[in-house]
Design goal:
single chain, 118 residues, mainly alpha, Four Helix Bundle (Hemerythrin (Met), subunit A), 7 helices, 0% strand
């Protein structure tokens, strides 16, 4: 799988990130590094504990990383969740987390396939 195919798989903005980072090698390096970021686990833990302030920070971090790396689909869902968490938790935030989980899983699976293929 090429980097461009990987981005297409999870709804990413390949052209945009190449425009910012200027090289496929650099994009791939940082995209793969996303797999070791702990913000998602912190988000899940914080939401489970109803620690919405910490969940907001974790979601905001995910949103920022996604914007920088062109992970459009996950970036959009985490942005909506971040906005909802800005004023604390709600049932709506719990529902939005479901979409973030789906988008995160799709992104991670594509990145893991990219990593395996070298």
């Amino acid at each position: 799988m090429s980097l461009q195919e990987c981005y297409a798989t999870f709804g990413g903005d390949y052209e945009g990130v190449i425009g910012r980072l200027r090289s496929e090698k650099m994009v791939k390096k940082f995209a793969i590094k996303f797999l070791s970021d702990s913000s998602y686990e912190l988000l899940l833990k914080s939401m489970d504990e109803k620690n919405y302030e910490e969940a907001f920070r974790a979601s905001h971090t995910i949103k920022g990383i996604c914007q920088n790396l062109g992970f459009t689909k996950l970036g959009n869902s985490s942005s909506v969740l971040t906005d909802k968490l800005r004023d604390g938790g709600s049932e709506e935030a719990d529902a939005l987390l479901t979409q973030v989980k789906e988008d995160y899983q799709q992104t991670v699976e594509a990145l893991q396939a990219l990593e395996v293929e070298g």
